[in-house]
């Protein structure tokens, strides 16, 4: 490889990898300094320059201008320095060209390895900087393939794995599927950035609503809390300071289109949008949605509540395997005990009967 071919190869790499060309040339020059010292066994201070235009390579021995020379490799007298240029003074550094005739061959051999290494480092840094800005945000990825229990996903400049814990239980991941993912964490490692993505994180819900609902994006409607059992059901509590804005209606959208878009992205996961209230009883009643509530008794000290629902609404309020009650408790941060009206009446009757027996 001659110098022209070297430049062409470097330019192609710069274009392909979208890396600052100066980073590549600086790395090459540093590598050539080491190559020169290794091949020509010198302890001189050496500088190597590579022309950004022609690829011409020049090696310079750098010598300090001194009054008395004790080391010819590192020093030059003021008299000799001024034979090169009258501008030199004591303490200046003089560059004296010492480029070997066959140094282009050495350079070509050295360039490949050093530049590839620098490209890897630069790429890792670029990828890290790009994705650290997307931490706690959404990205779009393309499913590539399954690797054991993991799913390999192309997320743009790099690929990452969707681990089993971050996969939705009811979701198939097929080659070519385009999905949105939540970036949980981005960490630097010796092998490059480790990008943790998720389909199960509650943050995915939050960001999807921000995308679909302009009122959330601009702050008119606020997401107060989210509870989620990924792939099955999510509850989201919303609130607006503007009395003229219905926060749940804004999230549902015209003819339900906004929430439906999110449900479609989540492959059919059910979403309950409930109105947040600073009144715990009202908020807890709303959180039991879609079940209707007769009454709520709250115990502020224990942060617990008893919710009474019509008999025919009990199974709906509790949910399959207790899911609705569980999500409501997580959404509100309160312990919730759900009873039907007949259960309350029975308990009340038993209590009164006990009083009579006393």
UniProtKB/TrEMBL annotation:
Reported function: Participates in both transcription termination and antitermination.
Xref: HAMAP family: NusA_B (MF_00945_B)
InterPro entries in alphabetical order: KH_dom-like_a/b (IPR015946), KH_NusA_2nd (IPR058582), KH_sf_prok-type (IPR009019), NA-bd_OB-fold (IPR012340), NusA_N_sf (IPR036555), S1_domain (IPR003029), TF_NusA (IPR010213), TF_NusA_bacterial (IPR030842)
Family: Belongs to the NusA family.
SMART domains documented for this protein: S1
A Pfam family: S1
Name of this chain's protein: Transcription termination/antitermination protein NusA
Domain S1 motif per the UniProt entry, residue ranges: 136-200
GO molecular function, one term: DNA-binding transcription factor activity
């Amino acid at each position: 490889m001659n110098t022209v071919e070297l430049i062409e190869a470097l330019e192609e790499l710069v274009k392909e990898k979208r890396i600052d060309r100066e980073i590549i040339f600086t790395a090459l020059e540093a590598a050539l300094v080491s190559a020169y010292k290794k091949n020509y066994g010198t302890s001189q201070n050496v500088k190597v320059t590579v022309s950004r235009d022609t690829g011409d390579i020049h090696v310079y021995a750098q010598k300090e201008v001194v009054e008395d020379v004790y080391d010819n490799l590192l020093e030059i007298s003021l008299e000799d320095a001024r034979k090169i240029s009258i501008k030199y003074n004591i303490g200046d550094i003089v560059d004296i060209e010492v480029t070997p005739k066959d140094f282009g061959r050495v350079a070509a051999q050295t360039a490949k390895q050093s530049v590839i290494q620098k490209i890897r480092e630069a790429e890792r840094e670029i990828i890290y900087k790009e994705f650290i800005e997307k931490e706690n945000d959404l990205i779009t990825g393309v499913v590539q393939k399954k690797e054991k229990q993991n799913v390999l996903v192309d997320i743009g400049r790099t690929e990452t794995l969707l681990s089993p814990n971050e996969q939705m239980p009811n979701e198939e991941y097929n080659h070519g599927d385009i999905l949105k993912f939540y970036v949980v964490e981005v960490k630097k490692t010796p092998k490059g950035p480790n990008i943790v993505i998720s389909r199960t994180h509650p943050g995915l819900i939050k960001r999807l609503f921000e995308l679909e609902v302009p009122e959330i994006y601009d702050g008119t409607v606020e997401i107060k809390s989210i509870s989620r059992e990924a792939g099955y059901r999510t509850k989201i509590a919303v609130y607006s300071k503007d009395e003229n804005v219905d926060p749940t209606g804004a999230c549902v959208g015209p003819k339900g289109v906004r929430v439906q878009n999110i449900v479609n992205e989540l492959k059919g996961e059910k979403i309950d949008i409930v109105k947040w209230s600073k009144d715990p009883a009202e908020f807890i009643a709303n959180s039991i949605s879609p079940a209707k509530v007769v009454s709520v008794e709250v115990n502020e000290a224990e942060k617990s509540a008893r919710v009474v629902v019509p008999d025919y609404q009990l199974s709906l309020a509790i949910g399959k395997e207790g899911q609705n009650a569980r999500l409501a408790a997580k959404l509100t941060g309160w312990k919730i005990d759900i009873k039907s009206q007949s259960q309350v009446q029975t308990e009340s009757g038993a209590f009164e009967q006990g009083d009579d027996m006393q």
